[in-house]
Specification:
The protein has three domains: about 90 residues, NAD(P)-binding Rossmann-like Domain (Rossmann fold, 3-Layer(aba) Sandwich); about 200 residues, 3-Layer(aba) Sandwich (UDP-N-acetylmuramoyl-L-alanine:D-glutamate ligase), CATH 3.40.1190.10; about 130 residues, Mur ligase, C-terminal domain (Protein-Tyrosine Phosphatase, Chain A). Helix content is about 35%, strand content about 15%. It contains 17 helices and 17 strands. It has a six-stranded parallel beta sheet with strand order 7-8-6-9-10-11, sandwiched between helices. The termini are far apart.
Length: about 450
Protein backbone atom coordinates (compact mmCIF):
# COMPACT_ATOMS: atom_id res chain seq x y z
CA UNK A 1 0.00 0.00 0.00
CA UNK A 2 1.39 3.48 -0.88
CA UNK A 3 2.56 5.62 2.02
CA UNK A 4 -0.32 7.89 3.06
CA UNK A 5 -0.15 11.64 3.08
CA UNK A 6 -2.37 13.60 5.48
CA UNK A 7 -3.49 16.20 2.99
CA UNK A 8 -3.08 16.94 -0.72
CA UNK A 9 -0.90 19.85 -1.72
CA UNK A 10 -3.13 22.81 -2.62
CA UNK A 11 -2.85 23.98 -6.21
CA UNK A 12 -1.25 27.38 -6.82
CA UNK A 13 -3.07 30.67 -6.39
CA UNK A 14 -5.95 30.73 -8.86
CA UNK A 15 -5.88 34.50 -9.44
CA UNK A 16 -5.19 35.17 -13.10
CA UNK A 17 -5.14 31.47 -13.99
CA UNK A 18 -6.93 30.37 -17.15
CA UNK A 19 -9.30 27.61 -16.00
CA UNK A 20 -11.53 25.46 -18.19
CA UNK A 21 -14.54 24.00 -16.37
CA UNK A 22 -15.82 20.89 -18.16
CA UNK A 23 -19.48 20.27 -17.40
CA UNK A 24 -21.88 22.87 -16.04
CA UNK A 25 -24.89 20.57 -15.93
CA UNK A 26 -28.56 21.33 -16.40
CA UNK A 27 -29.17 21.18 -12.66
CA UNK A 28 -26.25 23.23 -11.46
CA UNK A 29 -23.66 20.57 -10.72
CA UNK A 30 -20.85 22.86 -11.86
CA UNK A 31 -22.26 26.15 -10.62
CA UNK A 32 -20.50 26.05 -7.25
CA UNK A 33 -17.02 25.51 -8.63
CA UNK A 34 -17.50 28.17 -11.33
CA UNK A 35 -18.55 30.72 -8.71
CA UNK A 36 -15.59 29.79 -6.54
CA UNK A 37 -13.08 30.09 -9.37
CA UNK A 38 -14.50 33.44 -10.43
CA UNK A 39 -14.33 34.72 -6.84
CA UNK A 40 -10.66 33.68 -6.71
CA UNK A 41 -9.93 35.85 -9.73
CA UNK A 42 -9.50 33.06 -12.28
CA UNK A 43 -10.20 33.58 -15.97
CA UNK A 44 -12.93 30.95 -16.37
CA UNK A 45 -14.17 29.23 -19.51
CA UNK A 46 -17.23 27.02 -19.03
CA UNK A 47 -17.76 24.33 -21.65
CA UNK A 48 -20.62 21.84 -21.88
CA UNK A 49 -22.00 19.48 -24.51
CA UNK A 50 -25.51 20.86 -23.93
CA UNK A 51 -26.62 24.04 -25.72
CA UNK A 52 -27.49 27.20 -23.82
CA UNK A 53 -31.25 26.64 -23.90
CA UNK A 54 -30.81 23.30 -22.08
CA UNK A 55 -28.67 24.97 -19.41
CA UNK A 56 -30.94 27.93 -18.71
CA UNK A 57 -31.29 27.41 -14.96
CA UNK A 58 -27.57 26.87 -14.41
CA UNK A 59 -26.67 29.87 -16.55
CA UNK A 60 -29.13 32.03 -14.62
CA UNK A 61 -27.32 31.10 -11.39
CA UNK A 62 -24.11 32.54 -12.91
CA UNK A 63 -25.68 35.75 -14.16
CA UNK A 64 -23.50 38.78 -13.54
CA UNK A 65 -20.17 36.92 -13.40
CA UNK A 66 -17.40 37.68 -15.90
CA UNK A 67 -17.17 34.29 -17.63
CA UNK A 68 -16.52 32.80 -21.05
CA UNK A 69 -18.68 30.03 -22.45
CA UNK A 70 -18.44 27.34 -25.10
CA UNK A 71 -21.75 25.47 -25.10
CA UNK A 72 -23.15 22.78 -27.33
CA UNK A 73 -19.77 21.04 -27.69
CA UNK A 74 -16.14 21.01 -26.62
CA UNK A 75 -13.04 22.36 -28.38
CA UNK A 76 -9.71 20.61 -27.87
CA UNK A 77 -7.80 23.90 -27.71
CA UNK A 78 -9.78 24.92 -24.61
CA UNK A 79 -8.16 21.98 -22.83
CA UNK A 80 -4.61 22.42 -24.13
CA UNK A 81 -4.07 26.18 -23.83
CA UNK A 82 -5.31 26.79 -20.27
CA UNK A 83 -3.55 26.52 -16.90
CA UNK A 84 -6.02 24.14 -15.23
CA UNK A 85 -8.97 21.92 -16.18
CA UNK A 86 -11.75 21.29 -13.65
CA UNK A 87 -13.83 18.34 -14.85
CA UNK A 88 -17.13 16.99 -13.61
CA UNK A 89 -16.43 13.80 -11.64
CA UNK A 90 -18.86 11.93 -13.91
CA UNK A 91 -16.53 12.45 -16.91
CA UNK A 92 -14.45 9.33 -17.50
CA UNK A 93 -10.70 9.82 -16.98
CA UNK A 94 -10.02 8.48 -20.49
CA UNK A 95 -12.24 11.13 -22.10
CA UNK A 96 -10.42 12.36 -25.20
CA UNK A 97 -10.48 16.01 -24.12
CA UNK A 98 -8.98 15.16 -20.74
CA UNK A 99 -6.39 13.00 -22.46
CA UNK A 100 -5.49 15.97 -24.65
CA UNK A 101 -5.11 18.19 -21.57
CA UNK A 102 -2.78 15.74 -19.86
CA UNK A 103 -0.77 15.24 -23.02
CA UNK A 104 -0.24 19.02 -23.12
CA UNK A 105 0.90 19.01 -19.49
CA UNK A 106 -2.28 20.70 -18.20
CA UNK A 107 -3.30 19.53 -14.70
CA UNK A 108 -6.81 18.10 -14.40
CA UNK A 109 -8.79 18.27 -11.15
CA UNK A 110 -12.39 18.32 -9.89
CA UNK A 111 -14.54 20.28 -7.49
CA UNK A 112 -14.17 17.75 -4.66
CA UNK A 113 -10.40 17.71 -5.10
CA UNK A 114 -10.25 21.51 -4.93
CA UNK A 115 -12.38 21.38 -1.79
CA UNK A 116 -10.36 18.83 0.19
CA UNK A 117 -7.09 20.58 -0.69
CA UNK A 118 -8.48 23.65 1.07
CA UNK A 119 -10.09 22.07 4.14
CA UNK A 120 -8.35 23.40 7.26
CA UNK A 121 -8.33 20.26 9.43
CA UNK A 122 -8.31 16.72 8.06
CA UNK A 123 -8.88 15.35 11.57
CA UNK A 124 -12.34 16.86 11.39
CA UNK A 125 -13.31 15.15 8.12
CA UNK A 126 -15.70 12.23 7.78
CA UNK A 127 -16.27 10.54 4.42
CA UNK A 128 -19.09 8.17 3.54
CA UNK A 129 -19.35 5.90 0.52
CA UNK A 130 -21.16 2.73 -0.52
CA UNK A 131 -23.42 1.44 -3.23
CA UNK A 132 -26.58 2.10 -1.22
CA UNK A 133 -27.28 4.18 1.87
CA UNK A 134 -24.42 6.66 1.67
CA UNK A 135 -26.65 9.73 1.41
CA UNK A 136 -28.75 8.64 4.38
CA UNK A 137 -25.72 7.81 6.53
CA UNK A 138 -24.08 11.13 5.62
CA UNK A 139 -27.22 13.04 6.60
CA UNK A 140 -27.60 11.02 9.81
CA UNK A 141 -24.01 11.76 10.85
CA UNK A 142 -24.54 15.47 10.20
CA UNK A 143 -27.79 15.37 12.17
CA UNK A 144 -26.13 13.66 15.14
CA UNK A 145 -23.06 15.89 15.10
CA UNK A 146 -25.33 18.93 15.34
CA UNK A 147 -26.95 17.36 18.39
CA UNK A 148 -23.59 16.35 19.88
CA UNK A 149 -22.27 19.88 19.49
CA UNK A 150 -24.95 21.06 21.89
CA UNK A 151 -23.75 18.62 24.56
CA UNK A 152 -20.01 18.05 24.12
CA UNK A 153 -17.22 20.58 23.56
CA UNK A 154 -15.35 18.11 21.37
CA UNK A 155 -17.99 18.58 18.67
CA UNK A 156 -18.82 22.20 19.33
CA UNK A 157 -17.73 23.40 15.88
CA UNK A 158 -20.13 24.00 13.03
CA UNK A 159 -21.14 20.99 10.92
CA UNK A 160 -20.83 21.16 7.13
CA UNK A 161 -22.42 18.42 4.98
CA UNK A 162 -21.54 18.18 1.29
CA UNK A 163 -19.87 16.21 -1.45
CA UNK A 164 -22.36 14.16 -3.44
CA UNK A 165 -25.21 15.42 -1.25
CA UNK A 166 -26.43 18.99 -1.11
CA UNK A 167 -24.72 21.96 -2.71
CA UNK A 168 -21.07 22.77 -3.19
CA UNK A 169 -18.99 23.51 -0.09
CA UNK A 170 -16.42 25.38 -2.16
CA UNK A 171 -18.67 28.43 -1.91
CA UNK A 172 -18.16 28.43 1.85
CA UNK A 173 -14.76 26.79 2.27
CA UNK A 174 -13.27 30.05 3.60
CA UNK A 175 -15.85 29.96 6.40
CA UNK A 176 -14.93 26.44 7.56
CA UNK A 177 -12.92 26.66 10.78
CA UNK A 178 -10.30 24.42 12.35
CA UNK A 179 -12.80 22.98 14.82
CA UNK A 180 -15.65 22.54 12.35
CA UNK A 181 -16.74 19.10 11.17
CA UNK A 182 -17.00 18.33 7.45
CA UNK A 183 -19.09 15.30 6.45
CA UNK A 184 -18.74 14.31 2.79
CA UNK A 185 -20.74 11.83 0.75
CA UNK A 186 -18.18 10.48 -1.73
CA UNK A 187 -19.18 8.71 -4.93
CA UNK A 188 -16.94 6.23 -6.73
CA UNK A 189 -16.33 8.92 -9.38
CA UNK A 190 -15.15 11.39 -6.74
CA UNK A 191 -12.96 8.82 -5.02
CA UNK A 192 -11.31 7.86 -8.29
CA UNK A 193 -10.07 11.45 -8.54
CA UNK A 194 -9.12 11.79 -4.88
CA UNK A 195 -6.81 8.82 -5.27
CA UNK A 196 -4.59 11.03 -7.42
CA UNK A 197 -4.25 13.38 -4.44
CA UNK A 198 -3.52 10.48 -2.04
CA UNK A 199 -6.24 11.75 0.29
CA UNK A 200 -8.62 9.86 2.55
CA UNK A 201 -10.77 11.27 5.38
CA UNK A 202 -9.97 10.90 9.07
CA UNK A 203 -13.05 8.69 9.55
CA UNK A 204 -14.16 6.64 6.54
CA UNK A 205 -17.52 4.87 6.35
CA UNK A 206 -18.48 2.19 3.84
CA UNK A 207 -22.12 1.10 3.88
CA UNK A 208 -21.86 -1.77 1.37
CA UNK A 209 -20.35 -2.58 -2.02
CA UNK A 210 -22.32 -4.30 -4.76
CA UNK A 211 -22.01 -3.97 -8.56
CA UNK A 212 -22.84 -0.50 -9.88
CA UNK A 213 -21.69 1.96 -12.56
CA UNK A 214 -20.08 -0.85 -14.51
CA UNK A 215 -20.68 1.16 -17.68
CA UNK A 216 -18.33 3.83 -16.26
CA UNK A 217 -15.76 1.76 -14.35
CA UNK A 218 -15.66 -1.15 -16.78
CA UNK A 219 -15.74 -3.93 -14.17
CA UNK A 220 -16.84 -4.63 -10.63
CA UNK A 221 -13.24 -4.93 -9.49
CA UNK A 222 -12.48 -1.44 -10.81
CA UNK A 223 -15.60 -0.04 -9.12
CA UNK A 224 -14.65 -1.76 -5.86
CA UNK A 225 -11.12 -0.40 -6.09
CA UNK A 226 -12.49 3.13 -6.51
CA UNK A 227 -14.52 2.72 -3.33
CA UNK A 228 -11.42 1.53 -1.45
CA UNK A 229 -9.80 4.92 -2.07
CA UNK A 230 -11.86 6.22 0.87
CA UNK A 231 -9.46 4.44 3.26
CA UNK A 232 -6.44 3.79 1.05
CA UNK A 233 -4.53 6.83 2.30
CA UNK A 234 -5.56 6.81 5.95
CA UNK A 235 -2.75 6.80 8.50
CA UNK A 236 -1.62 3.35 9.71
CA UNK A 237 -2.96 3.15 13.26
CA UNK A 238 0.09 1.43 14.72
CA UNK A 239 2.28 4.44 13.88
CA UNK A 240 0.07 7.05 15.50
CA UNK A 241 0.91 8.37 18.93
CA UNK A 242 -2.55 8.86 20.43
CA UNK A 243 -6.12 7.64 20.09
CA UNK A 244 -7.22 11.13 19.09
CA UNK A 245 -5.09 11.00 15.95
CA UNK A 246 -6.06 7.51 14.85
CA UNK A 247 -7.80 7.14 11.53
CA UNK A 248 -10.82 4.87 11.45
CA UNK A 249 -12.71 2.80 8.93
CA UNK A 250 -16.31 2.10 9.97
CA UNK A 251 -18.29 -0.59 8.20
CA UNK A 252 -20.55 -3.57 8.84
CA UNK A 253 -19.24 -6.87 10.15
CA UNK A 254 -20.35 -8.53 6.90
CA UNK A 255 -18.12 -6.29 4.80
CA UNK A 256 -15.45 -5.74 7.41
CA UNK A 257 -13.95 -9.20 7.32
CA UNK A 258 -12.83 -8.54 3.76
CA UNK A 259 -11.66 -4.99 4.47
CA UNK A 260 -9.67 -5.57 7.64
CA UNK A 261 -6.79 -6.92 5.58
CA UNK A 262 -7.05 -4.04 3.11
CA UNK A 263 -7.10 -1.06 5.48
CA UNK A 264 -4.08 0.34 7.33
CA UNK A 265 -6.39 2.29 9.65
CA UNK A 266 -8.21 0.89 12.63
CA UNK A 267 -11.44 -0.83 11.65
CA UNK A 268 -14.61 -0.50 13.70
CA UNK A 269 -17.21 -3.13 12.80
CA UNK A 270 -20.94 -2.62 13.29
CA UNK A 271 -22.47 -5.96 14.27
CA UNK A 272 -26.17 -5.15 14.67
CA UNK A 273 -28.74 -2.64 13.41
CA UNK A 274 -29.77 0.34 15.53
CA UNK A 275 -32.25 -1.06 18.07
CA UNK A 276 -34.55 1.94 18.47
CA UNK A 277 -37.38 2.81 16.11
CA UNK A 278 -36.61 5.52 13.54
CA UNK A 279 -39.08 7.33 11.26
CA UNK A 280 -37.85 5.81 7.97
CA UNK A 281 -38.74 2.17 7.22
CA UNK A 282 -36.51 -0.79 6.54
CA UNK A 283 -33.92 -2.85 8.37
CA UNK A 284 -31.25 -1.42 6.06
CA UNK A 285 -32.00 2.03 7.48
CA UNK A 286 -31.55 0.60 10.98
CA UNK A 287 -28.09 -0.54 9.79
CA UNK A 288 -27.49 2.91 8.32
CA UNK A 289 -28.35 4.38 11.71
CA UNK A 290 -25.97 1.99 13.44
CA UNK A 291 -23.11 3.13 11.19
CA UNK A 292 -23.86 6.78 11.99
CA UNK A 293 -24.04 5.99 15.71
CA UNK A 294 -20.65 4.25 15.52
CA UNK A 295 -19.08 7.37 14.03
CA UNK A 296 -20.47 9.52 16.85
CA UNK A 297 -19.17 6.98 19.34
CA UNK A 298 -15.66 7.31 17.92
CA UNK A 299 -15.91 11.10 18.11
CA UNK A 300 -17.28 11.60 21.62
CA UNK A 301 -16.99 8.16 23.24
CA UNK A 302 -19.54 5.39 23.07
CA UNK A 303 -20.90 5.88 26.57
CA UNK A 304 -21.39 9.60 26.01
CA UNK A 305 -22.96 9.05 22.58
CA UNK A 306 -26.06 7.31 23.90
CA UNK A 307 -27.92 10.50 24.71
CA UNK A 308 -26.92 12.04 21.39
CA UNK A 309 -28.15 9.12 19.34
CA UNK A 310 -31.69 9.45 20.65
CA UNK A 311 -31.87 12.31 18.14
CA UNK A 312 -32.29 9.68 15.41
CA UNK A 313 -35.87 9.25 16.57
CA UNK A 314 -36.51 12.66 15.01
CA UNK A 315 -34.47 12.09 11.82
CA UNK A 316 -36.90 12.82 8.98
CA UNK A 317 -35.08 10.98 6.20
CA UNK A 318 -34.17 12.40 2.81
CA UNK A 319 -36.25 13.23 -0.25
CA UNK A 320 -36.50 10.42 -2.83
CA UNK A 321 -35.20 7.81 -0.37
CA UNK A 322 -38.14 5.75 0.87
CA UNK A 323 -39.94 9.05 1.26
CA UNK A 324 -43.59 8.75 2.30
CA UNK A 325 -45.49 10.93 -0.18
CA UNK A 326 -49.15 10.17 0.43
CA UNK A 327 -51.93 7.68 0.98
CA UNK A 328 -55.11 6.85 -0.87
CA UNK A 329 -57.79 4.34 0.09
CA UNK A 330 -55.46 2.83 2.67
CA UNK A 331 -52.57 2.46 0.18
CA UNK A 332 -49.31 4.04 1.38
CA UNK A 333 -47.08 5.54 -1.33
CA UNK A 334 -43.28 5.77 -1.11
CA UNK A 335 -40.93 7.62 -3.44
CA UNK A 336 -37.57 5.81 -3.56
CA UNK A 337 -36.39 7.27 -6.86
CA UNK A 338 -32.81 7.51 -5.53
CA UNK A 339 -32.80 3.72 -5.76
CA UNK A 340 -30.60 3.47 -8.86
CA UNK A 341 -29.09 0.04 -8.16
CA UNK A 342 -30.62 -3.43 -7.83
CA UNK A 343 -29.29 -3.63 -4.27
CA UNK A 344 -31.08 -0.41 -3.28
CA UNK A 345 -34.33 -1.64 -4.80
CA UNK A 346 -34.00 -4.97 -3.02
CA UNK A 347 -33.55 -3.24 0.32
CA UNK A 348 -36.59 -1.05 -0.33
CA UNK A 349 -38.80 -4.01 -1.24
CA UNK A 350 -37.70 -5.89 1.86
CA UNK A 351 -38.63 -2.92 4.03
CA UNK A 352 -42.30 -3.93 3.80
CA UNK A 353 -44.34 -7.05 4.48
CA UNK A 354 -44.20 -9.67 1.72
CA UNK A 355 -47.26 -9.67 -0.51
CA UNK A 356 -48.15 -6.02 0.13
CA UNK A 357 -45.90 -4.12 -2.28
CA UNK A 358 -46.70 -2.89 -5.78
CA UNK A 359 -43.26 -1.93 -7.08
CA UNK A 360 -42.25 0.09 -10.13
CA UNK A 361 -38.90 -1.04 -11.57
CA UNK A 362 -36.74 -0.07 -14.52
CA UNK A 363 -34.89 2.78 -16.21
CA UNK A 364 -31.53 3.46 -17.82
CA UNK A 365 -29.30 0.45 -18.43
CA UNK A 366 -25.98 0.72 -16.52
CA UNK A 367 -24.86 -2.77 -17.52
CA UNK A 368 -25.81 -4.40 -14.20
CA UNK A 369 -27.50 -7.81 -13.99
CA UNK A 370 -31.14 -7.12 -13.10
CA UNK A 371 -32.42 -10.70 -13.16
CA UNK A 372 -31.94 -11.38 -9.41
CA UNK A 373 -33.91 -8.22 -8.60
CA UNK A 374 -36.68 -9.20 -11.02
CA UNK A 375 -36.96 -12.68 -9.50
CA UNK A 376 -37.03 -11.27 -5.94
CA UNK A 377 -39.71 -8.75 -6.87
CA UNK A 378 -41.86 -11.42 -8.50
CA UNK A 379 -41.59 -13.65 -5.42
CA UNK A 380 -42.10 -10.97 -2.78
CA UNK A 381 -44.34 -8.29 -4.32
CA UNK A 382 -48.04 -8.27 -5.01
CA UNK A 383 -47.45 -6.46 -8.29
CA UNK A 384 -44.44 -5.60 -10.47
CA UNK A 385 -44.67 -2.81 -13.07
CA UNK A 386 -41.75 -2.07 -15.38
CA UNK A 387 -40.67 1.11 -17.14
CA UNK A 388 -37.83 2.47 -19.24
CA UNK A 389 -35.00 0.91 -21.22
CA UNK A 390 -34.58 -2.04 -18.85
CA UNK A 391 -38.32 -2.65 -18.44
CA UNK A 392 -38.48 -5.41 -21.03
CA UNK A 393 -35.61 -7.40 -19.52
CA UNK A 394 -37.04 -7.06 -16.01
CA UNK A 395 -40.54 -8.10 -17.04
CA UNK A 396 -39.16 -11.09 -18.96
CA UNK A 397 -37.40 -12.27 -15.79
CA UNK A 398 -40.23 -11.45 -13.34
CA UNK A 399 -43.19 -13.81 -13.58
CA UNK A 400 -46.43 -11.86 -13.75
CA UNK A 401 -44.79 -8.46 -14.23
CA UNK A 402 -46.69 -5.88 -16.23
CA UNK A 403 -44.65 -4.05 -18.88
CA UNK A 404 -45.87 -0.45 -18.72
CA UNK A 405 -43.16 1.56 -20.50
CA UNK A 406 -43.77 4.91 -18.82
CA UNK A 407 -44.05 5.99 -15.21
CA UNK A 408 -47.48 7.47 -15.87
CA UNK A 409 -48.78 4.15 -17.18
CA UNK A 410 -47.16 2.19 -14.32
CA UNK A 411 -48.75 4.37 -11.64
CA UNK A 412 -52.13 4.11 -13.34
CA UNK A 413 -51.94 0.31 -13.46
CA UNK A 414 -50.68 -0.01 -9.89
CA UNK A 415 -53.34 2.33 -8.50
CA UNK A 416 -56.02 0.24 -10.17
CA UNK A 417 -54.74 -3.00 -8.60
CA UNK A 418 -53.72 -1.86 -5.10
CA UNK A 419 -55.98 -2.46 -2.10
CA UNK A 420 -56.16 -1.05 1.41
CA UNK A 421 -53.10 -2.08 3.42
CA UNK A 422 -50.90 -2.31 0.33
CA UNK A 423 -47.82 -0.21 -0.50
CA UNK A 424 -47.15 1.56 -3.81
CA UNK A 425 -43.38 1.85 -4.16
CA UNK A 426 -41.26 3.57 -6.80
CA UNK A 427 -37.85 1.94 -6.37
CA UNK A 428 -36.56 1.54 -9.93
CA UNK A 429 -33.20 -0.11 -9.27
CA UNK A 430 -31.91 1.77 -12.32
CA UNK A 431 -30.76 5.27 -13.23
CA UNK A 432 -33.28 7.71 -14.68
CA UNK A 433 -31.47 9.06 -17.73
CA UNK A 434 -33.47 7.21 -20.37
CA UNK A 435 -36.72 9.03 -19.56
CA UNK A 436 -35.82 11.73 -17.01
CA UNK A 437 -33.00 14.21 -16.48
CA UNK A 438 -32.25 12.83 -13.02
CA UNK A 439 -33.71 10.82 -10.17
CA UNK A 440 -35.20 13.95 -8.56
CA UNK A 441 -37.29 14.69 -11.63
CA UNK A 442 -38.45 11.06 -11.71
CA UNK A 443 -39.35 11.11 -8.02
CA UNK A 444 -41.20 14.40 -8.32
CA UNK A 445 -43.18 13.03 -11.26
CA UNK A 446 -44.17 9.96 -9.23
CA UNK A 447 -45.18 12.09 -6.25
CA UNK A 448 -47.32 14.32 -8.45
CA UNK A 449 -49.03 11.32 -10.06
CA UNK A 450 -49.99 9.64 -6.80
CA UNK A 451 -51.08 12.87 -5.15
CA UNK A 452 -53.41 13.90 -7.95
CA UNK A 453 -55.03 10.51 -8.54
Amino acid sequence: MPAPTPRPTPPPDLAGQRVTVMGLGRFGGGVGVVKYLAAQGADVLVTDLEPADRLADSLAALDGLDLNFRLGGHNVSDFTTCDLVVASPAVKPDNRFLRAARAAGIPVTSEIRLLVSRLPNRRRTIGVTGTAGKSTVTAMIGHLLEKAGQQDSRTAGKVWVGGNIGGSLLDVVDQIGQEDWVVLELSSFMLEGLREDRWSPHIAVITNITPNHLDWHGSFSAYRRAKFAIFEYQRPWSSVGSNVDEDWLVTTSELGEALQNESAARVHLVNAPFPDRIPIPGEHNAWNAALAVAVIGLVVGFEESRAVCSALKAFPGLPHRLEFVGEFAGVRCYNDSKSTTPEAARLAIESFEPGTVHVILGGYDKGVDLKPLAVLAAERCRGVYTIGATGEAISDAADGALRCGTLDAAVKEAVGRAASGDVLLLSPGCASWDQFDNYEQRGNAFTALVQKR
